[in-house]
Amino acid sequence: MLNQNQALELFRKSGALLEGHFLLTSGRHSDRYVQCAQVLKFPEYTSLLCERIAAGFQGEQIDLVVGPAMGGILVAYETARHLKVPNLFTERENGSMTLRRGFAIQPGEKVLVVEDVVTTGGSVVEVIDLVKAKGAEVVGVGVLVDRSGGKVNFGVRKEAVITMEVPSWDPGNCPLCQGGSIAVKPGSRGLK
Q1: Three-state SS for 187?
Q2: How would you classify the pairing of strands 87-93 and 157-163?
Q3: Cβ–Cβ under 8 Å, residues 79 and 53
Q4: Where are the domains of the chain?
Q5: Cβ distance 119 to 147 under 8 Å?
Q6: How far is CA 131 from CA 4, 93, 141, 177, in A?
Q7: Domain 4-178 in CATH 3.40.50.2020
């Protein structure tokens, strides 16, 4: 089974670990960015990484895997493949996480929520709230990269393939901004 150092090597080989000055989805700034799309473009890497998430929940009853678009789509698909259950993804519509495309979550289903990267966990919390609003139960959360160093708590068991402490700053307190650098958005929620 893939360990954290082996997973980090896949991220390095694929160019998924970036250094610079970045605007994160959460609105915070950081000097490091994890661009999971770069590692997920390799099916063999995606399979190994998601197999690790699935292994963390073996023995749990899981009926469905759900991830937020965009980052969670491939992670949900491949994790569900390893668990041999269906998957779907949520989308943001008018500022709220929702189900579209005929997707449905049934009351009583046991759901594993997955995501590519969490910093504050905002998107995952929105998906958890949506799952609960449908009357389903969130069994746990699986992520490829937990940038919080393990501090993000979703109120359920969380399994991360990679856990790292990556500093992030409120834009008003960002030392990189104060040094004259301009943050760039490498690409989520359609902003580049």
Answers
A1: coil
A2: unpaired
A3: yes
A4: 4-178
A5: yes
A6: 29, 16, 12, 38
A7: yes
Read off the tokens for 148: 């919080």
Mind listing the pLDDT tens digit for each residue in 130-155?
Answer: 999 999 999 999 999 998 889 999 99
The letter for the amino acid at 32 is R
Which two tokens mark 7? 């997973």
Rounded to whole angstroms, how far apart are CA atoms 113 and 115? 7
Can you read off the two tokens belonging to residue 111?
Answer: 């759901």
Work out the burial of residue 63: count CB atoms within 10 Å of its CB; fewer than 13 is exposed, 13-18 middle, 19 or more buried: middle
* 156 DSSP 8-state letter: S
Residue 89 makes CB contacts below 8 A (sequence gap 6+) with: 66, 67, 68, 69, 72, 73, 76, 103
Burial of 42 (0-12, 13-18, 19+ CB in 10 A): middle
DSSP state of 191: B
HSE on the CB side for 31, CA within 13 Å?
9
Peptide bond before residue 70 is cis, with ω within 30 degrees of 0: yes
pLDDT in tens, 10-51: 999 999 988 899 998 778 899 988 889 999 999 999 999 999
Nearest to 54 by CA among 74, 81, 72, 73: 81
* Amino acid at the residue 82: H
**In contact, 65 and 143? CB cutoff 8 Å:** no
* Contact between residue 36 and residue 117 where contact means Cβ atoms under 8 Å apart: yes
